[in-house]
Specification:
alpha/beta; Aminopeptidase; seven-stranded mixed β-sheet; 7 strands; 33% helix; 16% strand
Length: 215
C-alpha cells in the first residue's frame, strides 16, 4: 500500500473533526476540492479546534484511476460496522473477504482509536447531494444554504460497511457524506471547487462544528 498522508491540527483538547477525500480513487473531484481547501493557509490559521485531514484515503486507487483499492476492494464497504456484508452485489462494491481487511481502513481505524472522531465530513463525487448519517442535519443545511445541494438522510441505496454506518455506531459520531458533481459537460475541477469554496470555508470558520469536539 502507498503511504497515506494525514494532517493534524495542534489543538488536542477534544474529539476531532475529520475531513476525508479520495475514499474512491476515481473520484478526483473530491481530492481536488480537499487539496484546494488544505492549501488555504490563511483559512487554517483561523481554525482553533481538533481537526484531522486525510486528502487521499485510497492512494493506490487514485494512482491507477479506480474506485477500488489495489486489491479490488471498495473501502466504503469494508469498515467493521454491524452492517458489513460479504455479499458482492457488483464488482465495484466488493466488500473484501472480511471487515477491515484492507490496509487503508486499518490506517483510518488506527487514527480513530488514537484521535476519537466527533464528526466526519467525507467528500465523494457522484451527483450533488448532502447525505447525513447521525446528528448533523444542521451541518447539511448550513452547506446547502451556500451551494444549493439537496439534503438527504440516505444516499438512495444500502451501503453496508460504510463510514456512514461505522462512525455513528462505534463512536456516536455523525458522518456528512458530501457528494460533489462529476466533471464533464463543460464542468471543470475548478468549477467544482468554486461551487463549494464558500460553503466549506464558511463551515470551517463558523462555530457550528464546535459542539462535535466536546468530550
Amino acid at each position: 500500500m502507498s503511504d497515506i498522508h494525514a494532517y493534524k491540527s495542534d489543538v488536542n483538547n477534544g474529539r476531532y473533526i475529520y475531513i476525508l477525500a479520495g475514499v474512491h480513487g476515481d473520484e478526483v473531484e473530491s481530492i481536488y476540492v480537499l487539496k484546494e481547501l488544505l492549501a488555504n493557509a490563511e483559512l487554517w490559521e483561523k481554525i482553533n479546534r481538533p481537526t484531522i485531514v486525510v486528502p487521499i484515503v485510497n492512494v493506490d486507487g487514485y494512482r491507477i484511476g479506480t474506485r477500488t483499492n489495489s486489491h479490488g476492494v471498495d473501502l466504503n464497504r469494508n469498515l467493521p460496522a454491524s452492517s458489513w456484508s460479504h455479499v458482492i452485489t457488483e464488482p465495484q462494491y466488493h466488500p473484501g473477504l472480511t471487515p477491515l481487511s484492507e490496509p487503508e481502513n486499518q490506517f483510518l481505524v488506527s487514527l480513530f482509536q488514537k484521535y476519537p472522531p466527533g464528526i466526519a465530513i467525507s467528500l465523494h463525487s457522484w451527483r450533488p447531494i448532502l447525505n447525513y448519517n447521525g446528528d448533523c442535519i444542521e451541518v447539511a443545511h448550513f452547506l446547502a444554504e451556500r451551494n444549493q445541494y439537496p439534503i438527504a438522510p440516505s444516499i438512495g441505496y444500502a451501503t453496508p460497511g460504510s463510514l456512514g454506518d461505522y462512525l455513528p455506531e462505534k463512536y456516536s459520531a455523525p458522518v456528512l457524506t458530501y457528494e460533489l458533481p462529476r466533471i464533464g459537460h463543460l464542468r471543470t475541477l475548478r468549477d467544482v471547487w468554486d461551487e463549494n469554496k464558500l460553503a466549506l470555508t464558511d463551515l470551517l470558520t463558523s462555530d457550528l462544528l464546535n459542539k462535535y469536539c466536546l468530550l
